[in-house]
Amino acid sequence: MRRRPWGCVIAAVPLVVLSFLLQENEEEHLTENPSLEEKKKTLWRLNQEQLGSESRDHLAAFKDMREAAPVLQQATYRLLAGAPPQGRRLLAAGIALERGPRGTYLLDTLRSLFQASSEAELDHVLVLVHLSGGDPAWLGQTAANISGLFGRHIEAGRLLVIGGGLGGAPGPGHPGSPSRGSACGARQAGRRASYALLMNFARNLSEYFLVMGDRVRCSPEFISSVSRVLWAWRALPWAVLEFSGLRLSGKVVRAGDLGRLASLLLFPADLPIPSLLSEFRLLLAQDAPIRFNPAVFHGSGRGSAAGDPCAPLEEEEEEEEEEAASGEPDNPAATVLSDMMAVGSAPPQVAYVLNKECYSALSPVRGNYLAVAWDRPQRVARVAVLTGSEPHGLHLLRQGHVELGLGPPVAGHCGRHSLLGPLVAGRLDQAVFSEARLSCLRLLVLAPQEPWLLVRQIRVWTWPEEADAEPAASGEDARPAPTRQ
Known about the structure:
The protein is α+β, with helices and mostly antiparallel strands. It has helices at about 10-25, 25-30, 35-45, 50-65, 70-75, 105-115, 120, 135-155, 185-200, 220-230, 260-265, 275-285, 320-325, and strands at about 75-80, 90-100, 125-130, 160-165, 205-210, 215-220, 240, 250-255, 295-300, 335-340, 340, 360, 370-380, 380-385, 400-405, 415-420, 425-430, 440-445, 450-460.
């Protein structure tokens, strides 16, 4: 099955989004930023330019905006259960919920979240639930149900339930304004407004924000898994990190970006939240998703959309994209080279053979590498690199990252390399979002370590060849879709 092309995004859409957001903040800009007309001219020029330069200009214009739209600056909130914590947490896990005909599995999701986490892990997390709807009885009963089941976590400051409303009179097309469209369109707008209010409230509560839906199962120790990744990526530029294949749940953003993201969710168009999250990523110049394996969030398998044509689809698994990246790796034929000092007679190739042999290197230093050059260019779906011994994880690579490369390999290296990601606790396991055929993979040492390093295994999953497919370019006209810029 062919992979769904993630990159088929119309270039004009981010420009329209930026135009709306700049217009939304026009009054503030007129008094605080006299260059509004220049920005409008810049937006016009962007329509005439190529996509590569658009990404850079989008980033500058988007970051130059105020943190939140005026309608969010006037938002009102009330506490339904709990109180805001003292001090910022590492992570806020946010769930926005509206009353709907299909009911809710929010209590099951909260139960899974708390049962999957230790007391020590929960001390670094705030679970924030936003309830929206015009029925006070439903709001009160839902908050009471949450308090009755999770009172201990509310008292410990780990769980907070709020309600909120948009301030002022939103203009036509805004979520929360009277809708002239379909009933499903109105519900979609309501969901976007609910998540916008949730994110706006959460801006100063944590360092990072985790987006969740109300029908999710959490893997054990998911907080530790997410925290380790955030630590490894802390100094790298990124907009959205993904910890599942779900369309909505499992995406993490920096809390400092929540104001802009909340404003984007109020964009007056019939777009679902996952699509706007993708636009947000592109506006912040992250060209491709950054997704980690194994997934730590899963659909609950409950609450089918049957009988509810307006039910959101964002919680369904992206089965088409997961198909090629599951099962056993296929490690296509390749040459493996390293400039590290080997321990024993085992060559670097053993790290690429799918068995229990390891490649051992003595005292690696910054700049040392282990490079894989495929015999023919490959469409790669997933890469995993494992270092250190089992089961204790001794002699793992403490500081290193993995790069992917294009172009004919020379001495194991390609002409151009793009970062896939840093190792986290000596491991990397990430999906690869590139339509180009890649030629190289390189494990790079970023800091010296003693006494030695074990590269246990390099695993590669590729997309199946299609007999009727035209050969994809692997030369200068092909570019890997990097996971960050």
